[in-house]
Design brief:
This protein has about 400 residues and is mostly beta strands. The chain contains six helices and 29 strands. Strands 20, 21, 22, 25, 26, 27, 28 and 29 form an eight-stranded antiparallel β-sheet that branches. Strands 12, 14, 15, 17, 18 and 19 form a six-stranded mixed β-sheet that branches.
């Protein structure tokens, strides 16, 4: 009995891709061995969650046990949008990934005897992450006109290229925010060390007018920050951002290593009712997008009713009107459910942000913030057309959503 794991998923593999294990055994096709199968056991958080038995798959080099761990592993990912607290770090955990152990054994009969199962003859740890790779070079992440090789584009967009940095592909150099708005960004911490957060207030020319900093303690790899002015002031222990502040930068440091800067410019939107959408981006982080122009709400209802004759027996008389001079109902609505939709329009966006917003369009978890509460919404738009500044010039981002909270009128 000798099991060898020949190949396994690479570090930072996506749980939404196939996670292939290929194993070999010296007993495949051995004399006297019948009904041979590889046995794959998957453990998550120390508990066995599945056992799969597979027959050897022949190839030019031999016969191997091939197993895809992805369906079992990704069943344990959870919703980790859990902002809490009044400072800038509002959540810190490892919920962006699922840690598992894959144990490989074998089952066979020997010499005409009964089947015997041998487990955990080889094993390996697997950490798979809640992100998905791009099609190819959808996001122009480099500020250069020099074209890159397709494989270079693709490799630069995988999760491991965002370690110890903000996991987002939005344009970080030009983020507009309204004073008091919640704004979420996710930092992917991998390297051990002492981290500090830095805040810089800037004027219209970009000069730094004030600075605040302090150490940050992380509990995991997924670290959710709220860059709202109030949270920043709480972290700083004083008022560094006011309504009159032109803009501010937020970044993290570890020794001499510095993350990319989140560069905010404050803007007032007094004319229309605004909404912020907070969504899970393709890298497994949380992003915020503001819709500040003419946002329109509509409501559709689903009615359940039944029909009856308007003439009813009242005492010893048939009548179609009651003693209060109300005509009898012929259609009775006994259940009415309300469904609310919004058509949202953003301010002007850049080409990079428009391409990044395709991740909002395809996000599986989206919240609309209304008066500090987060309402789950579903993107009802079904077609996304990319735009180019060279041909489309200035453009807004528009999207249709359906609120996932339904209201019912009085039941009858």
């Amino acid at each position: 009995m000798a099991i060898t794991i020949q190949s396994s998923p690479a570090p930072y593999s996506s749980m939404h891709d196939d996670l292939w294990y290929v194993s070999s055994s010296n007993l495949v096709n051995a004399a006297g061995v019948t009904a041979f199968k590889f046995v794959y056991d998957v453990y998550v958080n120390g508990a066995q969650v599945s056992r799969t038995k597979v027959y050897p798959s022949p190839s030019a080099e031999g016969s191997y046990g091939v197993f895809n761990a992805s369906p079992m592993v990704r069943a344990f990912v959870t919703n980790y949008f859990e902002p809490s607290g009044s400072s800038i770090l509002v959540a810190s955990n490892d919920k962006i990934k699922v840690n598992s152990t894959i144990q490989v054994g074998e089952e066979y009969a020997s010499g005409g005897g009964n089947l015997i199962t041998y487990t955990n003859l080889a094993s390996g740890a697997l950490s798979s992450y809640n992100y998905y790779p791009p099609l190819f070079a959808d996001i122009l992440f480099v500020n250069s006109n020099t074209p890159l090789v397709l494989s270079d584009y693709y490799d630069n967009l995988l999760l491991e290229n965002f370690t110890d940095d903000w996991i987002t592909e939005r344009d970080l150099d030009n983020i507009t925010i309204e004073y008091g708005d919640n704004f979420y960004a996710t930092y992917f911490k991998v390297t051990a060390g002492t981290y500090s957060a830095w805040i810089e207030s800037v004027n219209e020319s970009g000069a730094i007018t004030d600075t605040a900093s302090g150490n940050i303690t992380f509990s995991g790899e997924m670290n959710l920050f709220n860059c709202q002015a109030g949270h920043i002031n709480t972290f700083a222990g004083r008022t560094i951002i006011t309504e009159n502040t032109y803009g501010y930068n937020v970044y993290l440091k570890r020794g001499v290593a510095i993350s990319r800067k989140l560069q905010f410019k404050q803007k007032c939107y007094p004319k229309y009712k605004q909404y912020n959408l907070h969504f899970l981006n393709r890298l497994g982080g949380w992003d915020t997008m503001k819709f500040a122009l003419v946002n329109k709400r509509s409501t559709s209802v689903q009615r359940a009713s039944y029909r009856r004759n308007d003439w009813q027996l009242t005492g010893n008389t048939m009548s179609n009107i009651d003693s209060y001079n109300k005509y009898n109902e012929t259609t009775l609505n006994y259940a009415i459910q309300h469904k609310d939709m919004f058509h949202l329009i953003s301010d002007w966006v850049s080409q990079q942000d428009y391409e990044w917003l395709a991740q909002l369009f395809a996000s599986t978890i989206v919240y609309m913030e209304v008066q500090g509460a987060y309402f789950p919404v579903t993107i009802s738009s079904t077609n996304y057309e990319y735009k180019l500044e060279s041909s489309d010039k200035l453009f807004n981002f528009e999207i249709d959503i359906e609120v996932g909270k339904y209201i019912t009128s009085q039941f009858r």
